[in-house]
Amino acid sequence: MTTRNQNAGIAAALLGLAGGLFAWWKYNNATPEEKERLKSKVNDLGAKLKDSYTEVEDTVSDNLASLKNKLAKEKENISDEIEKVAS
C-alpha cells in the first residue's frame, strides 16, 4: 500500500518526466534561431552562476582567513593571561 508521501513523490516524478519530454519535443521542433537563442540564454545563465559561485567562494575564504587570524590572536591573549596568572 502506498502512502500519501509516496503518491506525492510519484506524481512529482511523473510531472518532471512530462516536463522534460515536453521540453525535449519543443527543442527538437524549434527553428535553428530559437535553438541558438536558447543555447545563448543557457550559456549566459551558466556564466552568471559561475560568477556568483566564485564571489561566494572568495567571500567564504576571506571570512575563514579572518576568523583564523582572530582565533590565533585570542590564543596568544589566552597564553599571555595564563603566563601572568602562573607568575
TrEMBL record:
It comes from the Bacteria. Residues 57-84 form a coiled coil. The keyword Coiled coil applies. Keywords: Coiled coil. This is YtxH domain-containing protein. It comes from Leeuwenhoekiella marinoflava DSM 3653. The lineage of its organism: Bacteria, Pseudomonadati, Bacteroidota, Flavobacteriia, Flavobacteriales.
